[in-house]
Amino acid sequence: MKPTIDNWQTNPLETGPLYPWAGWEAALVVAALLFFIYFLIWKLKSENRHYAQSVRQLTAEPPDQGVSNQHEEHDDG
Amino acid sequence: MTDPLNALNILFTEFYYWVTVVLMFLIHVGFCLYEVGVSREKNKLNTLMKNSMLIPVITLGFFFFGWWLYFAAQNGPGITGGWKSAPWAEPWNELMAPHMGGAPAGENLTSEETATWARLNGVFWAAFLLFSWTAGSILSGAVIERIRAGAFWLLAILVGCVTWVIDAAWGWSDTGWMVQKLGYHDAYASGVIHGLAGGSALAILIHLGPRLGRFRQDGTPRVFPAHNTWMIIIGMFLIYTGFWGFYAACNVPILDINPADNETFFSATTIYLTPTTLSGITFNFLMALTGGLLIGYIVSKGDPFWTFQGGLGGIITASAGNDLYHPIQALFVSMLGVWSGYKLHYWVERRFKIDDAVGAVAIHGYCGTIGVIACGFILWGYPSSAQAGYAPITPWGQLAGAIIMFVVLGFIPCYLAAWGLKRAGLLRIPREVELAGLDHQILELEQEQRQELVAAETALANRQSGEQ
Fold first, then answer.
1. Within 13 Å, how many C-alpha atoms sit on residue B130's CB side?
2. B302 and B340 housed in the same domain
3. Which of A35, B138, B284, B406 could form a cystine bridge with B199, CB 3.0-4.6 A?
4. Domain span at B191
5. Could you give the count of Cα atoms lying within 13 Å of B396 in the half-sphere of its Cβ?
6. Are residues B445 and B305 in the same domain?
7. Can you tell me the mean pLDDT for A43-61?
8. Has residue B432 been placed in a domain?
9. First to last CA, chain B
10. List of chain A residues whose C-beta atoms are within 8 Å of the C-beta of residue B93
11. Which residues of B touch A11 (CB under 8 A)?
12. What is the pLDDT of residues B254-296, one digit of tens each?
């Protein structure tokens, strides 16, 4: 891909974007937006899983009485 | 950028905003310290991450649509016109990136606009972005120790990238419809940021509910001792410092304000392009801080938490008119706001069982709203804008503006959003986790690691003494 700037010995009044891949801005925005949405969904889901697991651990019976409870945890997935 | 005076003006403005942004970063550092200090030991890391991670979340939202919304929504839309064109703020526009300002960046931009925005777009964007972080951070403190981080970030996006941006477009721009039609004046954002964020926080708190154990059987609140007072105090000082930068960022540093074409007269202006001076607002900033500290100290009988909060509340109250007030007016307005905010905080807490962990609704919401209304009386009759034909500042215009900020754009959207999150089971952490603490797994792991280390050291010491 051709660099946006290939020579600094030009008239700055004619120079626009300095970043590489000029012309691909919309694609970059779409990619970042998709990642943003993914992150938010991932956070909500992972937080749900985390708290469900924490509740199971915190409400589990002590180890000497906890055999049946462990089975329940396993069944819950 | 070929005319020396014009180039110097633009480069100075670029540097000016860049410095204010760096200063304003301290607001977020302060909020993080403050919140972590207030939270209990068992919640401190989660509290830190919840607030810190609003930085990337709000930044992306503000890049994608917040900045564009600020320009596009200034007419309502539908009140004084339709959606406004703002190509430089569209996320895919080449001016939303490093740019030399040469050839026009699109069909809707002239060469001059391109050259100007190429230098100022990033620093303006950043200044507004840091206001957005502040709006999110105000919510963050109120809801600590029981909100889910994911839900909080969604609400922070709503406030930091949508609602506060819309109210800024309406009431905190030189052509916003509220400025035109209501004569709304809020130079340093008493209502635009603080009133709105306070209203938003109150709405979320209603759905979120109080922390477990907060209220006794008889309805009186229990005090949750802060886990680190020094973090709170240092945090507050950093917020004051950052707020100073915020004041500078609210100004346009250098503008020709002489309407006559044959002469120029450069001055700093407010965001409404009305003249003010950095010197004048420095008087008022410090006198408002002074009034807030004094009345906070008196009303709380020397309580450090409320004294420092009072300082912040004082600045927030006086901010709406601090471009024009006399310093003594700023002093008294700040006192009025902090006294009222403090009293309202405890009345609302006991009457409605609202658990605002840091007093954010009082200091930001009530003080900001009171400040906007007070400004309407003190600056009654002043022109709201440099533009001819706009409504002047009036008490009823400011009252309407305060309601729009606190209720219409602050309370209602967050009430609905928090209601939806609550219905989906995404708003509050489980009761068991709240009792154990949000950091309970990390703290247990650290305890195990410590015990393992002590055991290893003891074994090593025993072996060495055996060898001797």
1. 28
2. yes
3. B406
4. 4-426
5. 2
6. no
7. 92
8. no
9. 80
10. 25
11. 102
12. 888 887 767 888 899 999 999 999 999 999 999 999 999 999 9
